[in-house]
Design goal:
Number of strands: 9
CATH topology: Rossmann fold
Helix content: 40-55%
Strand content: 15-25%
Number of domains: 1
Number of helices: 8
Largest sheet: 7 strands, parallel
Length: 264
């Protein structure tokens, strides 16, 4: 990782804000992207303690043309990129009966369409060079349907499918893909206005611990990583996904009971 150039979205808070300095500490020059310039300035200042050439791009990734433009600007500014980490995400917690098409579109744009745009902007350049890495940060909600989170889960399921097929299609090109699945992480995503309270009420993993798991994934050779693999209380995230796969009806029944209890 030392000497690499990494573009990281969703870097103003949560996982991204914790991950950027950890990447810089490993020797990576980091380009951080998010809407909130003031927050980004704090994050990039931490990065520059280790890699002074790190810099920021303030952009709203729901604007897909802006997302593509940032990717290309970063490539030019850094004279190439070794890695794109698609981490930006927004929640939408509300029963599907109350969702509007505009709300679903907003979530899909940030959580799925912007990673696609940024990836496709950079992919030809990485293929021509014969090397590169795309890291897509999905969610445990990309493998499990979570009550009241239809739009969010749809976006994260899409990112999982996109990542798996990328991994297949790019075999032998020198361009690699990794999929990261965080569980319940202690971030601002749980407290965003315009969202119903989450059914899940803890325990949560600190963002720095999740970020450390992502750094470890970047230094490993595999494809799929749960970050972290085990949650407080000792349950393995992969085990939960396997359990759901083995008994989908049972999982959905339990989730429906949780939603009904929360609404009573």
């Amino acid at each position: 990782m030392d000497g690499s150039k990494i573009l990281l979205t969703g870097a103003s808070s949560g996982i991204g804000a914790a991950l950027a300095p950890q990447l810089a500490e490993k020797g990576a020059t980091v380009g951080v992207v998010a809407r909130r310039r003031d927050r980004l300035e704090e994050v990039v200042a931490q990065c520059r303690k280790h890699t002074p050439a790190s810099r920021l791009w303030a952009a709203d990734l729901s604007d897909l043309e802006a997302a593509e433009r940032v990717a290309l600007e970063a490539w030019e500014a850094f004279e190439g990129l070794d890695c794109l980490v698609n981490n930006a995400a927004v929640p939408k917690r509300t029963p599907v009966m109350r969702l509007t098409p505009a709300e679903v579109a907003d979530v899909m744009n940030v959580n799925f369409e912007s990673p696609v745009r940024m990836t496709l902007a950079l992919l030809p350049r990485m293929l021509e060079r014969g090397s590169g890495l795309f890291v897509n940060v999905s969610s445990l909600g990309g493998r499990l349907g979570i009550a009241h989170e239809a739009a969010y889960c749809a976006s994260k399921f899409a990112l999982c499918g996109w990542s798996e097929v990328m991994r297949i299609d790019l075999e032998g090109t020198g361009v690699a893909v990794k999929l990261v699945l965080p569980g319940p992480i202690e971030t601002e995503i749980w407290d965003q206005p315009g969202n119903d309270p989450a059914l899940y009420d803890g325990p949560f993993v600190p963002a720095a611990e999740c970020a450390a798991a992502i750094v470890a994934a970047l230094e490993d050779d595999g494809f799929e990583y749960y970050a972290p693999p085990e949650m407080p209380g000792g349950f393995g995230q992969r085990d939960v996904v396997v359990g759901k796969t083995n008994d989908v009806d049972g999982f959905l029944g339990v989730m429906a009971q949780m939603a009904a209890s929360a609404g009573s």
